[in-house]
């Protein structure tokens, strides 16, 4: 019998009998109801609240299936909710973990001919409440994040009941699939791939196959790897083979080398699985030193500064996630020189194709287990459910070259201080926390003894329950003093962290996103609809209030939106450049957050839909492999040079002063050879060298060898030693010229005076080669725009700091 994929032909109806719709898998409840016209589009205006009733009801998903044999198994994956599964009226399993696969023997209830399968989805809101009530005492969840209660009781995406950037739509459904297969067929349950790197010349890859062999079919496993073939007898369900690879082609993170992948094919009888394996060794190095304990990744023996961002689910509704859109988001990360993303613990373990993309693109993955900002039950049933989840996910993902680290959770340690119940009875909640954490650690190492493990993010280290939000000596930090504690951006410079896995600053989404989701009459920072698209209490006020520190306040809505993005870019640039300048003391920055789940004000650098906010354009520059940055000190400015390439490069640097009129006055020039293992000082200037109204402008060019190839590049930056509002900028009269080339448009920008953060906006989707650039008189700049649809005429508008803050209503 061939496996029957039960994709089409399902009925989805509510217990009240009001709705009855056809669906195919995968699906989520909310997108399905919206598509059928039974609910408004939740991302537009303030419609979201009107859809919560969907999750307050019980629903049924059912269909029939014809069987020609009865010794079959039902395989269910990604059942998102608390789901009672029955076949022909017989209950076969209650699936209560969206991150597990359930395999159920149907031989006692299947029949020849027609069979009825029913999946009863208990209201997720009620199921969560019932589970909370059944606990011996209350287990707190984060009320500030989650308007719907008790998400911590459910093993599903924790941001589904709301987050400080997400809708609270409580979607449920099936994110995986349902199938029926013969119980009497050999299948490969899972693989384990272990790599041993003897030296760069030789490696061995050992493959362990766990298979269920039936009637001796496939009793010998056939394995092919890198052009070699082995046979191994399956003994007690396990077969093993070792492959030696001389002169291996190593897999490297983006920016360090290529990403060659070798194919691995395993056959047991008719069962076949294929994988692509990148040969690399990723060590997570945490070594004590004079300051505390460091935190870094060493790839193939080379210490790599981790540059990246945090990944949240690609859409608030999983039924809307598409591989091509996700690929585009990840490509944007790569295009901004990122080499690591953190799959954050309040979302989901992503599908296989996500990690395949990361393997291809050289994006290392820091993978959290899916626990975030709540406390969790510690009863046996919950913990054994979690252990099964961990084993399954680790077995599924461990072979990926991209996988760099498994981390226990997001910010659970902070919750021990956050919740009054936990403060009042710390012993109890700390022990519960530790039971969960130990469960994760044990299950991880059971599934992959070689895994890199970190107990929690942020954390000062194993069994250290100190404050990794403020203490910068050890481990990874989440630096939220600027956004959540309202400190100035300079506060980033006062810390000397080892690795920062979260820090962020919000902005509004770009105007083209606002135009699609917010009606013209609601385009005001304080309108109820703008509030509805801001999930962090007080967030809009924080964005606008912070502006008053550094900028003259814009008058028009579009200018505020633009300036919010400039400000966000400057915040994150301040942090990243300051911490890159600490290399190797600090060895990584992952800002919060790469993407958005829906159109909202948030910390993301990519808009919902994938467009680049100003921050993302700035990231492409501040994450460049060779970077010069200013570290201001008392009365002096120190220029530091950072080189993240694998080899030294020769760098020339020119520093000048520039006035608002655009008059340039050279200050210094240096040429140096940039070492790779540490950031170092190349120049120091007395601040008095600058006149009252002058900024620094600096440029650099580099040349050298990288991976045996000639490599070169250039960069440039501007630095304002005083708040921008202190400068009397003048109208730069920017002139735009466009030149249509094949499938792209070349735009030339020219200015008559200094123009800051010059940003183009197109009236159709597409990608600019750069934005938020600095223009000087007589130095026109070319920017390329690649439209999504080359056949549409594109119109451009230009924004810049003078226009937004001093240009009045012009
Ligand atoms: C971090 C994250 C999220 C949150 C973000 C912004 O701590 O882990 O919980 O969305 O802060 O507040």
Automatic annotation (TrEMBL):
Its EC number is 3.2.1.25. Residues 193-280 form the Glycoside hydrolase family 2 immunoglobulin-like beta-sandwich domain. Coiled coil: none annotated. The keyword Hydrolase applies. It comes from Celeribacter baekdonensis. Transmembrane segments: none annotated. The keyword GTP-binding does not apply. One of its GO terms (biological process) is carbohydrate metabolic process. One of its GO terms (molecular function) is beta-mannosidase activity. Residues 730-803 form the Beta-mannosidase Ig-fold domain. Keywords: Glycoprotein, Glycosidase, Hydrolase. It is an enzyme of class 3 (hydrolase). The lineage of its organism: Bacteria, Pseudomonadati, Pseudomonadota, Alphaproteobacteria, Rhodobacterales. This is beta-mannosidase. Belongs to the glycosyl hydrolase 2 family. It catalyses: Hydrolysis of terminal, non-reducing beta-D-mannose residues in beta-D-mannosides. InterPro entries: Beta-gal/glucu_dom_sf, Beta-mannosidase-like_N2, Beta-mannosidase_GH2, Beta-mannosidase_Ig, Galactose-bd-like_sf, GH, Ig-like_fold, Ig-like_GH2. Residues 10-174 form the Beta-mannosidase-like galactose-binding domain. It comes from the Bacteria. Pfam families: Glyco_hydro_2, Glyco_hydro_2_N2, Ig_mannosidase.
